[in-house]
Amino acid sequence: MKNTILYLLSMLFMSIISCSSKPSEPIVRIKTTHGTLKIKLYNETPAHRDNFLKLAKEGYFDGTLFHRVIKDFMIQGGDPNSKDAQPGVSLGDGGPDYTLPAEFNYPTLFHKKGALAAARQGDQQNPEKRSSGSQFYIVHGEVYDEAKLAKEENKIREGKRRDIFNHLLMQYNDSLNMLQQLGKEDEMMALQNFVMSEVMRIYGEEPEFSIPEKIKEVYKTIGGTPHLDRSYTVFGEVIEDKTLFEKIGSWFGKHYGLEVIDLIAQEKTDGRNRPLNDVVMEVKVVKK
Known about the structure:
Blueprint lengths: L1 H19 L6 E6 L2 E7 L4 H12 L8 E5 L3 E4 L21 E2 L14 E4 L12 E2 L3 E4 L6 H37 L2 H20 L8 H9 L12 E6 L4 H8 L6 H8 L15 E7 L1
Helix pairs in contact: 3-4
């Protein structure tokens, strides 16, 4: 009887552990001419996770370049047109014939150094902030102090007001143009004032944005690009855990993890931020 109770308790405990444990996150390996990056893909961004895994399994990224590199900002790749691209050729417009819906998970996921995020077209052409089907970037970033973070917070708040204004302007643009054509300047001015008052009213109804303290601490230590938060989808991050083989390799000058981003970011580039020496990648799925 005692053994039966212990067995049942053991099974119950295992069941609780099984139900509460977080599903494992897929891992991909990006081999580059400067070393190897191991990246986990977040389960919180399933559309981006599954798309990246699909493309990696198909060999879509193999032979492509990190075609846009900006020190203290990011390294970007994933353009299929970069395969065997001749020096000086403009890159960055290639990709599959689809985009992905934005999957923002701020403040859980943010642009710390080593974050993997999706590139996209700008807000004017892409107000829904949909992601490119293949192009991605990895954050290099910089370390921020409190004063610089305060400036970033103000920029984000200003950006929020601008987004509200642009949305309202789209609603009232035809009316404003008509009043201008009719020469009704007083009515046009009144409508403009109304739009501005609505911007401030809508903005004032939301809590004022502040970067959470835990995230500030990351930006003040390892660094990142805080101004991209809540505007671009972060869907993975470079992980630093090395296998025994990789640890041995590092003794012989092999490079892994965040140091690879540093090395790529040091590359000299042309006027379009394309490295003068091609940085080629190969992407494989390590764990599904």
